Structure formats: structure tokens, C-alpha cells
Queue: 4 jobs
Job 1
Amino acid sequence: MKKLLFLITFLPSLVFAQATVDTIEVYSQAMKKTLKAAVTTPSGYSNAEKLPVLYLLHGGSGAFDDWHKKVTEPGIVNKMAEQYNLIIVTPGVGPASYYYDSPMMDSVQYETYITQELIPEIDKNYHTLAKKESRAITGLSMGGHGAMMLSAKHPDLFIAAGSMSGVMNIDTRLWKVPESFQQLRQSQQKAMLGSDLNYEAPFSTYTAVGLVDKMKDNGIALIFDIGVDDFLIETNRQMHQLLLENGTPHDYTERPGAHTWEYWTEALPYHLMFISKHLKWD
């Protein structure tokens, strides 16, 4: 039987419009380590009503509290939890780990952690509507990849998924970054996925673009967007085209902006507006 450590501390500085934020620690049996997450509950949260949950993921070099500390509008996560009367969970994972389960490294089993350890623990310890129809996931950059991948592979868990400036293809040759950074990310990927990792089509199921057929079959509501000056724009255009070709409904937008917290802060309300149309509050 899995044993999960669940500790809560209150962050008094992270309060907005009466919404509150807990920092929790969850022990992952799969990885034999403890990870942190922030859980935001609206002022209307009580034992009398169960609420939907949004899982909001951070980027490649980020942390569980990025969405509370780095946004350009302080308290925007709290504001969204309050406005939509839902719980928002921001989990922390390892750097450049893409939220998948590595076949090579026991320390990188984040798909299992999110889907089999964190979500059940949140449902156990908070008053959630513990069903697909009341659960959604989105994220930025690497977290956008994680949200699209996890929802595609686990359609029983999520009704809607999104990505802001997401890594829709882990093939760094499509990234508008210096060659040295491309090589660094490729070496990290091969360490986690194996030296024979193939970046050509048909794409690996370890990258979001390799899951477009699952996205079509699942029927999960999808939203993703990217800034026109973002170095990942070609991977998003590729994803958009693949979804058009296989007939998967999705909401795709290119807006002014780059790979910045200003862009993600502005993108979050659009994602909540979209996701709220699909979540169930009963």
C-alpha cells in the first residue's frame, strides 16, 4: 500500500480576496522522494460544498510556487480561484523533466506522481469533486507539454487541458534558441528517454505532438496559445496543423508576446474562461 506524506503549512503572504494558499508536501512512492505543491482555495471553500480542481503546471526550470511568486499581477492565481470558485493546485516537479515517466531514471516518474499519487491525495484531503468532469489541467512551457501529454494519456482524469507557450515538440531543432541550448536539452532528454530517441515522424509518445491521435479519440477540450516572439512558436504551429489534419477540435491563438511571465500572467484568465465552460460544479 502506498504511504503518502501530507504536510500543510499556511503561507500568510499569499492571500488575495480572501482566497488562501496551503503549501503541501506529498511523498512519492514511485520516486522515493517528497515534492511540494501549493493548493489555493477560494473564500467560499468549506466542508459543505465540493469544488472542481485545476492543476496548473510550471516550466522547465521552475518550482511549485512560481505561479504565486513570478506572475506580473500579484495574486492572480488567488483571484482566479475566487472568481471561478474552484481549487487550483500548482505541483512542483524536477527540472527539464517534461512530466513523463522516464524508462531510464527512477527519479523521473512524474506522470505516475501526478496521476496516481498527487491527484488522489488532493481528492482525499480537500473537498473536491473527484471526477473527470470537474478536473482540468494547463501549464506554461514544459508545463504546457505536461498538461497536453497527461490529459491525452489519461482521459479518465481530465475534461479540459491547455498550454501556454508549451513545448509541443521536444525536438529542439524546432526551437529558436542557440545551438548550445539545443544540445543541452537533447542530452537531458536522451538521458531520460534513451540514446536511441527518434525525433522524426511518427513522433514518440513522449512528446505532445506524438499524441494527437489520442487527443482526437479522447474528445478532451483543448486550448493552447503562444506569443509571436516566442522561441517555441514553430512547435505550437506544428501541433495546430496536426490537430487540423486529424480533425481534432481545439482553440489555438497566437498573440503578441514572448516566453515571459508577462505573457503567461495575461494568458491565465483566457484559459480559466475556456476551462470554466467545460468544468462541472455538481
Job 2
Amino acid sequence: MVAEIKSYTVLGVDAVEVTVQVDAGRGLPSVAIVGLPDSAVKESRERVRSALINSGFPFPARKVVINLAPADLKKEGTIYDLPISIGILFSQNIVSGRKLKDYLIAGELGLNGEVRRVKGALACAILAREKGYKGVILPVNNAEEASLISGIEIVPVKTLTETVAFLNGDLTIEPFKREGDFRESKFDIDMADVSGQFHAKRAVEIAAAGGHNLLFFGPPGSGKTMIARRIPTILPLMTEQEIIETTKVYSAAGLLSEGVIDKRPFRSPHHLVSDVAMVGGGSSLKPGEVSLAHNGVLFLDEFPEFKRSVIEALRQPLEDGMVTVSRISGTVSFPARFMFVAAMNPCPCGFYGFEDDVHQCSCSPVQVKRYLSKVSGPILDRIDIHVSLPAVKPDELSKMECGETSASIRERIEKAHAVQRERFKGLKISFNSHMGSTEIRKFCSLSSDAKAILEKAVSTFRLSARGYNRILKLARTIADLEGEEIIKSHHVAEAVSFREVIKIN
């Protein structure tokens, strides 16, 4: 009799149902795994054999054929150890088949029969609910992330023996239920740590309120990185849906050590990062940095030092909030809706345009131009806010006020987010920065004075259509922070002030 156990595989960040078929028939004792398995799946033969024997179960002296269907879909990882073991035991009439059709089963096996964590457990739980399964049987270390999905049973198991006893009805395992609220707001850093730079902190508040992208431009030591690292502290707490989306990405990437992602991600890759590491892909089509920053912040320090191909690869995620990766093994789409923050110096030495009594620029005009040209116009055009940060002298730091705490800034941002949620109710967008031309025409009503200032800005800065729309979206956010329905002249003026153009004299 052929055993059929339902499991899954991860494709991108989503789970796809896989049927594990096990047939123990006549022939020389052997184990064959078919259905496009990778090396980790093929090695499950030895793990399963040792786990069964060390758990007190017999291993059949027969020809065992294991098929992972659909056979044209590549299977990866150690997900199938547990379902293969259950299939082998079912073929020997050791496991009852009454519950097998009700659950998706996944887990890696240790040689002693211990059931270990697998990746993609949250996606598995989502798939089980969509397909109408009663629940999932997963390693106990995956139970917390899977419990984010309601409406199904999350059965946590520690060993192969425990799994068999549950399936046979000899053991009752209480479905895992998450307790309390995962959301957390404690940080070791605070925006009040930053002395001075009030213009930059105002820019950060506006960017966080509307989900806008941000570029810091200034000499070394002006506080660009310090401010950027404190942006997550002023962002509102993650909603349950955002926790699910973000945890799903980390789970699919195999980066979820325990629990769930309940703090907004802050990703700051080194400038030597590769194209694939940034946008995702590779032989196994894993999510990259832009997806790991989903619902959080992607910070690129020393922006011009990144490879040109890496910088240009940001165009699609910055515009669409997702990235589509095509490889010979398939095409997948990863979520990539993040707040983009970049920081750059004005030249290789860092002091062009910011000279003082101590620091003088030592770069030639050609070097400066070559350095700044590493960041293309189309990328700069996709960044809503450009901010210059002059260096703060050490003797002035003690005299400067630290300013507001992150908590007080977050209160204003939460109110602006509430306004936007109400405005975009029923639409597929969440923040002002996501608006298209249709939403801009509908929601960005300007006063007559504001229209005049905007028209002058278009001619002065020679803005593209994208730049024009981005000023409108930025002005809409500034008005939301003040609780204004109509965009007024000072809102547009402030928005224009954040569209500084990097020039070479």
C-alpha cells in the first residue's frame, strides 16, 4: 500500500503543497527518492534510517521508493524527514492513517529521533488554512511562528515517537496557542540621543509619517548614521498583519532563530553586497536585503560605494514595493515595501562644500564629479527627501539641546498613519508615498498659494513628472502631521526644501 503524507515546499516566501508518497515493495533492500530532490533531501535517507532505529521502530528490508509530488517542482531542505518517516511506518502498519489527511506535516530529524526546526513554517500554516486542513504538525521550535495564523491547529512535536503516538491516538497534544501581544517597543537607543540637527530630525519625522525615502548628504561625523539607526524607534508598532508578513519572509529565508519578528527590521548591508544578496535570487531563490527590510528600514551607508548594478537594482522595489526575480529554476516575487534611507559624503575625502577652519576638501573637481555620478539621476529622483547635514563642532555639542524623545515623535507619526489608513480604506495602499497619479489627483487638494509655489519649484528645479508627484505626496504628509485637509503654501514650501539637488560648481 502506498502511503501519502501531505507536506510543503517553499517557493519564494510562499508554501506550495507537496505530497510525499512512500511505497515499500518487493525487491533488494534500498531507498530511492525521486521528484527533483536536492542534496539535503537525498541525505534524508540516512537521517530517517537512524532516527527510526534509534526510536525503536523497524526499518523495512524492502525496496523503498519515495516520490515527492509534483515531480517537476524542485524540493529543498530537510522539511521531508518527518513525513518520509511517517510514510515508512504507515507502510508497515505501525502508524494509523486516520489523521494523515487532516494535517500538513514537516520536520527535520536528528539521528536520535529528535524533531528539529525547519524553514517556512509560517507559510506552511497559511497554506494549511487556505487548503482547508485541520492543522499542521511541526517541530515545537516552529510552533510560535505558525501560531500567528488562526483557525487551524498547531500541533508541536518534539520527537518522532511523540508524533507517532499522536497520529495513532495514543497521545493527546494540546494545540499551541500564543499568549499575549508579541508587539514590543523597547529600544536601547533614542532620538533624544542626537544633539542638534533639528532639520534632519524633522525630515526623518516626515519620512516616517508618510513612508517616504530619505537621503542624508554631509561630511563624516555629522550624525547621518546615528540618526538613521534611530528611525525604527519612532516608527509605530507593527500591526499583526505586518508581523505575519515580515516573519514569513524571515522564516522562508531560514533566518528565524526563534519566535516572531515583532520589531521593524533595520537592515544595513555592507557596500560590498552582491546584486543577488541585495534583491534576492540565487539557485534557491531566497529573499534578499530589500525583502528582509520589508515593513522596516533599509539603510545604505556610504551610498556611492555600492556597486552601480546594486544601486540600479533598487529601482523596481523602490517604485513597486516588490521585486520579481527570474532564474532558470523559476520566477518568484518577493515583498519589498520598506523605508529606504541612504547616507553619502559629498566627495571621496568627505568635505566638499562643507569646509571649515579645520577641514578642507582635497579632491579635484574631476574626483568629486566621478564620485557623485556613481548615484544616477533616476535613483535620486526616487528619493523623496534630500537633507544636507553640516558637521557639528565638538565644543558646540554640550551647548545643544537633545530635542524630543522617540516616544513623543512616534505619537505624532501614529496620528498621521491613522489619517492615512482612513483615507486609503479599501485601497491597496497604506501610506502617502504609495499613491499613484489617480490617488494624487483625488487626495492632494492645493490652495491657490500652494499651486503658485509648486509651479515655481517645477520651473526652478526642472522637476520631472515623478519629482512633481513626489513633492505633492511629501506635502500631503506634512499637512497630515498638522491635521490639515487642504495642502497649504507652507506645506509645499517645506516639501520643496527637501528636494535639494546635488550639483558640481
Job 3
Amino acid sequence: MEKAAVLAQVEQGLMLPLMEAFYTIQGEGYHKGTAAYFIRVGGCDVGCHWCDVKESWNAETHPPTDIHTIADEAARYSDTIVITGGEPLTWDMGPLTEQLKKRGLKIHIETSGAYPLTGVWDWICLSPKKNKLPIEPAPSRADELKVIIYNRHDLVFAEQQAEKVSDSCLLYLQPEWSVREKVTPMIVDYVMENPKWRVSLQTHKYLNIP
């Protein structure tokens, strides 16, 4: 396929820059400890300095892959699919989620919410970033708010973001991995003082799995 045709397919969400896909245990948030198939889509301009998948940022380094191929592979492994990035909402997620739904799969997304919400979702994990704030309807639709804590001011940011989600949204504070020993005690104290929040840990890193 010619480059222009490929780019047109990507623009329509019929092909996506696939960085990687793998079957593992969900390590974070409400669904931690459960098996899921992860689809990591390349492309992100949010630019968090502590991002642990910076290699996902440049979409051009990841091959445009047909969504039917992605969906067929996902269906081989699990009935729960997690779409992450990068920032997956950089792209139109409608065509991919339609194909996954046709295969009877439950679909979760992990997103900063910085771009318009496309696709059909069974679970939305909103992880807002200061660099590029979430836009509606992601905050009001979120099932789970997960704020990464790098320093004490991030707790203020977390409260600001919690005001934007629904009353039924679950609230999580997660230590940024590189400073976990420093900020985890602070998060524990904060959750004990503010029990509407829960602690999320990157348990997959403790388990040494993807």
C-alpha cells in the first residue's frame, strides 16, 4: 500500500501505529491482578517527563497495523482488552473498538483524556496530566481516576481533577515509580486522612512482568 493510502487509513482509524501488544496481568488500579490483553498504540504529545514508555511518543516509529489484525490477535488471548499508549485517543478508536466488540470482548482504555473521546468502552481509566488537561466527556464518563504522584503538589492537582469526575468514579493515587520510596508514605498518610481515595501501585513492576 502506498504511503498516502496508509496515512489515510491511519487518519480514519482503520490502521493504527501499533507499538506492542501482549497478554499479562493488569498491574494498576481497580482491575489489578486480573488477566488482560494490552494493546499499546504509539503517538503522544502530552510529554510527561517521568513517562516510562517515552518510546511510544513518536507514532512514526511504530508500524501502521490493520485493526482487523489487531482485533483477531487480541481475541486469541483474553476477553478483556486494555488499550493504552502513548495516548490512544490521538487516533479515532471507533473502528478498532467496533471490531473488538464484534468479537465479544470487554474493552478498557487508559487515557489522559486530552483528546476527544472516541470508541465504545466498558471501562475508562482517566489519568490526567498537567501538561495537557483532559477535556469532556472523558472526566464525566470516567469509571476510574488515577493520578500519578511525583511530588506533594500533585495531591492538589488530584483534588482539582476529582472535582471533574462523577460521584461514582473510583479515585486512585499512584506513586511515580522512580520516586516511589519517597512519595508512597506521603500517599498512604493522605489516603488515611482522605479515605475517598485509594492507593494504586504498579504491582506488575514488583512482579517483574510486562
Job 4
Amino acid sequence: MLSTRQLFDRSTTWAGRAVRTMRTHPVVTVIVGVVVIALVVVLARAWVTRGGDMDEALRLAPAEATRVSFTDWKGIRESVGADLDADSSPEEVHEMIDKAYSSDLTSTSVLPDSSGLLQQHFGWSPATIDWELFTQSTEGALTIAHLDDMDSDHLAEQLTSMGFEAPKDDPNDGGVWDGTLVPFSTFTDSGVDSETTPQISYIAFLPERDLILASDGRRYLSDQVDKLGDGDLHEPMTAAAGRLGDPLSAFIYDGDYTCREIGLGDSMAADQDQADALVDNAGEINPIAGFAMAAEPGGDVRASMAFENDDQARTNADSRAKLAVGPAPGQGGSFDERFKLGKVAADDEVVTMQLQPKNDTAVLSDLANGPLLFATC
């Protein structure tokens, strides 16, 4: 794989080769050289901006989102060896969900508890969608699912048969379906699912983009349909997410959410005292501006922390590496019982940590809730 610099180095060679071949046509030589260099620039830019499914999904996240979770259902199905399609039974879908849960790949999703219901009655589920993005902010929650070659007419028929109220606007162009009066219990009496998520109360389809949007708030969903992809997530969140590669599942938080939800503020006094002593021993700790953690296809977990500047990143790479091999107040035991610490690196303002789970420990879901390792305030 060529870096941008290597591409430009080759462009020089190609341009030089053109000069040597076409000595008698200097004007043509210049034109060919310019065209080649321009082509290389285009290719280099295309490579830099190319991303996986998570990058595509994050570009659709509402700008005000403070908590985002991504689930690559297609990748997860491949990872657990599940060959499913639209005709698979709810029981087969649950079997896949159970395997994915055992591999700590489902904590990022809001769909598992309703997966059988979705498969049997909605026409889409974790058995068929490519990926899922769930976002939360003070304004509302939104679920976005990508379903390749989506047949929106068929999905609309499914909702109609269940009793969803059809939208007043075009049902195939973002009109909102209302399922608040649907008696979901009548569809789950066979034991397919024990509960449904409120995140599928309202649903909209964007077939030209192969997207399904859902929410527990009608107005919020309608607003997001109109401005989908118009804004950008907070820059520290995208900086942290940009170091995750192409994961199977991932959490991305802004700094305030990280401070509030995965710090030790609600822990017992004894745990907080122990944490304070460990932090003092580890060195300087700065607040995290953007946080991300992901389960990788090979089984590792990668954590990514964005800071205010490069100096803070270098400082925290050292101090948090010390914390990552010590006790885990508030959770019990120690971090080195949960994972082997791999490479810790500071790149610009972002620190990444490679974590190798031990003894099938659920590192992703475990560390996303309250650990000393990511204490920020």
C-alpha cells in the first residue's frame, strides 16, 4: 500500500519517464506530466478520505450527538459464522445474537432484545442489515440502519400489517410511520422476544440511500430526516474515532459524557480514595475531550482518547499506561486480570491503547462503564 508521499515520488518518476520518451514534443510532455500529477493527487486524496462502514455511518450522525455507538452487523455475522438472510427464523437470529454477545460484540446495539420481532414482522433485523448507528443527545435519540438493496414498499407493507399509522408525507421519502399504538405483545406471545425497544416506535425510510431511521420521538426523527448528514460530530469525537480503523462495534463519546458517565464520580468513597492515590502515583492526568473504544475483528479492543493538544496526549500516554496495568477500583480486581496491555501511542492529540482480552473477558462493555483507566474529572 502506497503512502501519499510514495505516490508523489512515483509521480515524479512517471513524469520524468514521460519527458525522456517524448523529447521532441515539449508541450505534450508538460501536459502529460501535469495530467499524471493531477491524477496522482486525486488518487491520493481518494485514499485519504476512503473509509469503512463506520466512517460512512458517522457522517450521518447528528452534530449535537454526545454519545454514539456503531455495530457492524454484517461483519459480526461473518465473525460468528452465521449465514442468515430475510428468510431465517427468529430462533436462528437469536442464536447469532447469543454468539455475538458471548464475543462482547452487541453492547453497542439497541436491537438485540427485539431482533426476533424485527426479523419476523418488520422485514429487517440484525440478520439482514449491514450496520447500525445509535446516537444520543439532549435533543433525542436516533437509530440509523443500512440495508443494502432495500425494498421500501415491502417494508411499508410489513408496518401496515402490524398496525403502524402511515405517514402523511411520502412513505418512501422520509415520511414517519407511527407505531406507538401497535400492540407489540400480540406479536411476541410465541416467545420470539421478551421485550421491544422504544427506539422502533417511529420509523422512516430513505430508499435512495438504503437507510432505515428510527427513534422514540416523532418530531426528533422527522427533524433528522430533513437534515441527515448536514452537520459534523464534535471534532474531538471524530479525532478519537478516526484511530479505530474498521471495527465490529464501537462507542464514541464527547468529553462531557465521558466525564459524567465513565468516571468515578458515583463510586464509593473508598474506591475514589484508592483511585486518587493511583492517579497521583501514575502522574499527570488531563480531561479527555473525545473518547472511543472498539472491538476489532481479530478480538483485540482498541481505546482512543483525544486531548486538548499534543503535549497532553504524550503526558497521558505515559500516565494512563501505568493505570492500565494496576488495580481497577470501582470494578474490582485489576486491569491486568482483564487484558494484556499492548501498544500505547500518542499521535498528535490522540492516545491509542491496544488491549488484548484475557479469559474471554468482556473488555469493551466492561471498560465503557466507570473505570479508573478513563477517569477524567
